[in-house]
Design a protein that fits this description.
The complex is a heterotrimer of chains A (274), B (269) and C (359). Chain A is of the alpha/beta class. Chain A has one domain: P-loop containing nucleotide triphosphate hydrolases (Rossmann fold, 3-Layer(aba) Sandwich), CATH 3.40.50.300. Chain A contains 9 helices and 10 strands. Classes of the chains: A alpha/beta (274), B alpha/beta (269), C mainly alpha (359). The interface between A and C is large, with 39 and 34 residues.
Amino acid sequence: MTDSLLSVHDFSIVYDVDPPVKAVRNVTLELQRGEILGLAGESGCGKTTLAYGVQRLLKPPAVITSGSVVFHDASGEDVDINGLDPEEMRRFRWDKISMVFQGAMNSLNPVATIGSQLEDVFEVHRPNLTRSQRRAEVIELLEIVKVGAQRFRSYPHELSGGMRQRVMIAMALALRPQLMVMDEPTTALDVLVQREILRQISHLRHEFGFSVIFITHDLPLLLEISDRIAIMREGEIVELDTAERVWTDPQDEYTRTLLASFPRLTGERGVVHR
Amino acid sequence: MTVLEFDAVTKVYSVRGAGQMKALDDVSFTLRSGQTVGLVGQSGSGKSTIAKILTQLESPTSGEVRLDGEPIPRRGKGLRAYRQQLRMVFQDPFASLNPYHTIRYAIQRPLELDKVVPKDKLDDEVRRLLGRVRLDGDAVIDRRPHELSGGQRQRVAIARALASRPKLLVADEPVSMLDVSIRLGVLNLLADLQREHGLGVLYITHDLATARHFSDEILVLNQGRVVERGPADDVILHPQNPYTQELRAASPDPDTYFAHAAGILGGEK
Amino acid sequence: MSAVAPQLPTPGFDAIEAGTTATGAVKARARIPWRFLGNRALFYLFTLWAAITINFFLPRLMKGDAVTAYLARNRNVTPEAADALRALLGLDTDASLWQQYIDYWAHLLRGDLGISLLHGMRPVTEVVGQSLIWTVALVGFATLIAFAVGTIGGAIVGWRRGSRLDVLIPITTFFSTIPYFWLGLLAISVFSVALGWFPIGKAYGVGVAPEWSWEFIGDVLHHGFLPAATIVIASLGGWMLGMRNMMLTVLDEDYVTVAQAKGMPNDRVLWRYAARNAVLPQIQSFALALGFIVGGTIVMEVVFSYPGVGKLLLDATNAKDYALMQGVFLVITISVLLANLLADVAYAFLDPRTRQTEA
C-alpha cells in the first residue's frame, strides 16, 4: 500500500446554473493502491459529485472548472483522465475504474436478465472472448458474489434488494478494475444484509487488490470499514486521516460535530435528552 | 394516563399461489403515556404490519387491540375519535406530504377536520405548531414540501401529527431517510414533545442505536414474533436472544470496534 | 452465521434473504403467464358476448324495419315477395324474443350474418369480407409504417434531446393537426391532378378485374400510395411524440446512467437500455390502434373513393341495411377485442415484470 493509484489535484466542479453552485472546491487527494477511502459528509457536501467527477460521469450543467485527475495504472502508465477522448474514456471505464451505484432498485435494466447485463460488459470490453468464455466469466462472477449461477436468467425484479446489490458488485468486478467507487451501496438494506455485503467487499478487496472509494453519510459505518476517511463539507475536504485518528483525535471542528451527532450503539448515552 | 394494549395479536395474509403468510405471531405489548416503546425489526419482521393494525388499515386475524380497556372501534364516530388519539409519522418525509399543498394547508387540514380550534384561531394554531417543532413559521408556512430540506419536512409531518392533540404517536422509521447528522435533532424534538405533552410513542425502526437512545423499553421482532424484550440498555448491551445478538454484531459500532482494535476488549468482532 | 429458521413458504431460502423486500413467493418462472392471459381472455369473451347481445337488439330498437326501407326504394316488389324477404331476414316470425336471440346465435356460429339488402342480397360475410381486405391492407400497412418510423424517429429525437432534431416533433405534429380531408384533397390536387403521378382514387383502375397478377398488384399499389402516404403523414406525429416523451423519462433512470458508466457504446445504450423500456407503452397503443383499423378511415375512403369498411358502414346506415350494419359492428367488436388481447400478450412478453402480477 505504498504507491498512489489516483492523484486528484486542485479539482473543482461547478454547476452552471443561476446562481452557479460550487459543488467541489479545489480538492486534492492521493488514493493509495489497495486502500479503502471513505468519503463522508452530509447531503449536498459534494462527495457524490466528486466521485462522479473523477470518472467524468457528470452530466451538464456540471462543469469541471479546474484541476487534474491522474490514474497511475498498474502497468506503470500514467493516464490523465480529463485528457482522454470519448472513445478512450469509454474503453477506460469499467476496465480501470468501475462503480457500484446506490439503490440497486433501479440500477438494473428491468427488461433484461441479469446474466445478459453482466455479459454485455464482456461483449463490449473483451470482444475477443467467445460466447462460452463470456458465459463462464459471468457464471464465475455470480458465484463469487454468492448470488448463484442459477440466477443467470433471472430478471432484476425477481431478486431481493440484497441480491441486486450483489449483482451490482459482480458487475463492477467483472473486468477486475483497480478502483471501485461505491456510492451508498448499502443504504437501503437491512443491517444484517448490509454487514454481509460489507464483509464480501472486504474479502474481494483482499483477493483482488482493488482500491475502494466508499461514499456514504453513515459515518459510524465508515469508521469500521475504511483505512482512511475524508470528511467533506460544502465541496471541500475538511479532514483526511486514518479512521482511527478521525475517531480518537479529530482535528476539524466540523468533524467533531459530525462525530457527536450520531447515537452510539454501545457508547455513552445522553445524546437524546430523555 | 392513556394505555394502549396490543394483546396476543396474530395476522395472517393469504398470498395467492403461495398459501398463507404469518406476518405477526402472538405479539403483545403495552404503550403508556409518557413512555416510548421501541419496536426493532428488519424487513419482513412485521413491524409495518403492527403500524397498519394500529392505524386500522388492517385488522388482526386474532387477538385484540384495546385503548384504555376498550377494544378499538372499527367504524363510525368511534373510529374517528380513535384516529384523533393515535397519529402516525411516516418514514418518507417527501412522500407523506402532498407536493401540491402548502405547509399551511397540510397542517390546517387536520385542525379543520377534527375541529380542534375555532376557525378564527386556525392561523395562530398552525404557527404555534410550527413553533413547537422549531420551525420558523413565517419562513415555511407558505412553502411547498420540495422547497424544504428532509429534516424540515419531517418536522412538518410531526407538527401535522400533533395537530389533533393525540395521546399516542406511532413513529415508523421517522429518521431513517434523513442524514445521520440530522437524526438526532429530530429524535430530540420527539423526546421533548413527548415530555411536554405526555405522549406515548411507539418507535418503529431497524436501527438499534437510535432505538437504544430513544426508547424506554425495546421489543425485538423477527419474522412476526417477539424474540426479546426488556429495558432498552439491557436488550442492546446485553442481548440474550441469538437473533438480537446477531443484529447487534452487525450494527456499526465504532466504540466497540476501536476499543477492540486498541486491544482493550478481547474476543469476537 | 445464522440460527434463524426460515418461516416464509419461499423455497431456497437463506438467512441473507430474511430481510427481503421481494414480493410474495417466487415460483418457478413461467415464460408464458398463462393465468394472466387466461383471465384476460375470459374477460374479453364476456365483453364479446355483451357486444353481440347489444348488436342483436340494435335493429329491433330502431324505428321502422329494414324491409320497409327497402321497399321504399324498390317499388315493384309484390307483397308476397316482401313477406318472403322478411322471412329471409328473420323479421317475420312471431317467435319470442328469446327464440329470436337463440336463432341469432345459431346463425352467428354457423358464420351466417344474413344478407345485405343494399348490395344485391349478397351474404353479409361476403360484402364485409371484401371491404375488410382493402381496409386492413391499406390502413394496416400505413399504420404499421407510421408506428415504425414514428417510434424509431422518436427514440432518436429523444436520445439527442436538445439537438436540431427536436424540430421534427412540431413538424410532424403539425401535420397531424391538418384536417385529414384537406390533406387528402391537397395530395390529390398536387400529385394526381397537377403532376399526374398517381390516380385520383379507388383501389384499382376502373374496368380492371381483380386477379392475382403482378400487373394487378402493381395497379393496386399505384392506387394505394397516396391514401397510405397521407395516413402516414397525418399519424406520424403522434407516435413520434409519444416515443420521444417516454425516452426522456427513461433516460433519467438510473439504469441508463449505469449502462453509460459501464462503458457501453451509445447505440447499445440507446436501443437496448433506453428504447427497449420506452417502447412498452407504445406497443400497447399500437395494438389498440390495430383494433380500430377495422373501423376503416371513413374520411380517407370518401376522399379517395376507396372501397373500405368505413364507407360500407356509412352506406349501410343510410340505407338502414341492418344486417350489414350488424355485420360490420360485429367485425369491429371482434377486432378491437382481439387487438386488446394482442396488446396484453405483447406486453406480457415484453415486460417481464407483468408476468409476476398473478396476484
